[in-house]
């Protein structure tokens, strides 16, 4: 039987999710799909029948119904990447393939046939909104971004469109940073040079996949005001930086709360999505039943 384990923003705090992530052990479960996002850590494993509740949970996840930002689009790609990584590194059982193929299909269908994602704000847009809320002059502020990924790429594009001129990119691997920075003429730093780029930074946005924090209290210039936005899970910036006068820190929870406060998803669109999910579950179970009949012939 296909099963899953999940720890997410609905049943745990950010601290608890970080602890679970660091202690998580996949040994002994066999072929599985491991999903890690900002909001959740999940493991799908087993073989054989696919219970409706397992399919329903994954389908709701991929459609964004279980996200902190209802209807957000990024989770579709995250589920796809998790599945492809598992498929390429292990021999997954056929029911697991069917489950995830159906999940990706319903995710696409819900976004095409409903307006569940209409008006949904991404983490990157929320970060820009927070900066504007702080009334910082983007054209003259020195903005440092840490991390090379789609999230930071989107932020750079938004900042460029807003007229930001002093944008810098830091990363552990400079070559990756240069590739992303080149179209915008952005100066690149190695992460190990943080003493240099942190000294005059007005706005810091960090979104890496580092397993531990990379910016601590001793990295902050106490004589310089700083707005820090930490979009990473686990967190990139130590929470105690706020003990320094003039430092304002927003973490992932703050950013998501900002978005939730600004977005109202219409209930009829959620209901439409839920109805489509039930249709997809019925279709999946039909496929599985036909497979059983074929195998048993």
Can you describe this structure?
- By secondary structure, the chain is α/β, with parallel strands linked by helices.
- The protein folds into 2 domains: 3-119 and 265-296, Glutamyl-tRNA reductase, N-terminal domain (Beta Polymerase, domain 2), CATH 3.30.460; 123-258, 3-Layer(aba) Sandwich (Rossmann fold).
- It is 45% helix and 15% strand.
- It has helices at 14-23, 52-62, 74-89, 94-113, 123-133, 150-161, 174-181, 194-198, 252-262, 267-296; strands at 3-8, 32-36, 40-45, 142-146, 166-171, 187-190, 203-206, 226-230, 247-250.
- The protein has a 6-stranded parallel sheet with strand order 6-5-4-7-8-9. A 3-stranded antiparallel sheet has the order 1-3-2.
- β2 and β3 (40-45) form a beta hairpin.
- The longest helix is centred in the C-terminal third of the chain and has 30 residues, at 267-296.
- The chain is elongated and about 75 Å long.
- The two termini are 21 Å apart.
- 35% of the residues are buried.
């Amino acid at each position: 039987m296909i099963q899953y384990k999940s720890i997410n923003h609905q049943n745990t705090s950010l601290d608890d999710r970080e602890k679970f992530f660091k202690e998580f052990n996949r040994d002994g479960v066999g072929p599985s799909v491991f999903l890690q996002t900002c909001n959740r850590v999940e493991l799908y494993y087993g073989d054989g029948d696919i219970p409706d509740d397992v399919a329903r949970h994954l389908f709701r996840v991929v459609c964004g119904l279980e996200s902190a930002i209802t209807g957000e689009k990024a989770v579709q790609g995250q589920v796809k990447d998790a599945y492809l990584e598992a498929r390429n590194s292990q021999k997954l059982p056929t029911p697991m393939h069917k489950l995830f193929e159906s999940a990706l299909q319903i995710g696409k269908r819900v976004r095409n046939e409903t307006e569940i994602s209409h008006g949904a704000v991404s983490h990157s847009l929320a970060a820009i909104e927070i900066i504007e809320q702080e009334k910082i002059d983007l054209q003259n502020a020195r903005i440092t971004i840490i991390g090379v990924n789609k999230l930071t790429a989107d932020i750079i594009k938004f900042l460029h469109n807003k007229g930001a001129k002093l944008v810098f990119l830091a990363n552990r691997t400079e070559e990756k940073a240069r590739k992303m920075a080149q179209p915008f003429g952005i100066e690149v730093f190695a992460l190990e040079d943080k003493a240099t780029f942190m000294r005059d930074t007005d706005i810091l946005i960090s979104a890496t996949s580092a397993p531990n924090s990379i910016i601590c209290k001793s990295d902050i210039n106490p004589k310089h005001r700083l707005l820090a936005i930490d979009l990473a899970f686990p967190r990139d910036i130590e929470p105690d930086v706020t003990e320094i006068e003039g430092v304002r820190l927003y973490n992932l929870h703050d950013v998501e709360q900002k978005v939730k406060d600004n977005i109202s998803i219409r209930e009829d669109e959620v209901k439409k999505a839920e109805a489509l999910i039930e249709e997809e579950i019925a279709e999946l179970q039909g496929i599985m039943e036909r497979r059983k009949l074929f195998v048993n012939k």
